[in-house]
Amino acid sequence: MWSSCTIPPRLAHAALSNYHPDCPEKEAALQKCQKFAEQGLENIQKGRGLFLQGPVGTGKSHLSVAVLREIIENNLDRFGTAPSRLDLYDEYAFDGYQCCMVSVVELLETLRESVGNAKKKEAVRKKLHRIRRDDFVIMDDIGAERPSEFVEEQLFAIIDLRYRTRRSTFFTSNCTLKELERQLGERSVSRIFEMCEGVRVSGSDWRKKR
Fold first, then answer.
1. In this prediction, what percent of the chain has a pLDDT beyond 70?
2. Average pLDDT, whole number, for the chain?
């Protein structure tokens, strides 16, 4: 199951147990994530999510993947396995909950490149189907993309569908909701606000300590 979640290699071993807070703010963020994971299936069923916000290098992506890992490991019988044939991606193709992680910046770049390219457009269609329909999706680094009408429209279409169908979504961002509103527009941010509990992940950049 884990291999079908499209987790990047650097985060493949992220777990709540190996997130080591170095300040009270990170400790509070960890506790909120632990609480979400404890009620993981109920949260997925009710379409609840988290909006993890804070400066770079504080472990937002780590925490989001760690929550997903915890939920899957505690409920292995409830999560399906991705089929080998990607053309089977439809709402009846899986037996169990499906999850994936996507870099928002990478997704938007792929969408731009697919314009006028039939081969790439088909690959993007399959990826978008998962992002729109999977029961639990991590949208990583939202707000890092350059704002434009294209960005606003593409992300609104995804966020709005997940909002209307009550699908559990995590967002990680360096931007506050107010800053995101300038990036994505009021419609998207209003939906994120209702879909997610805010988790502030502040503190120093771990990457600079290595």
1. 89
2. 89
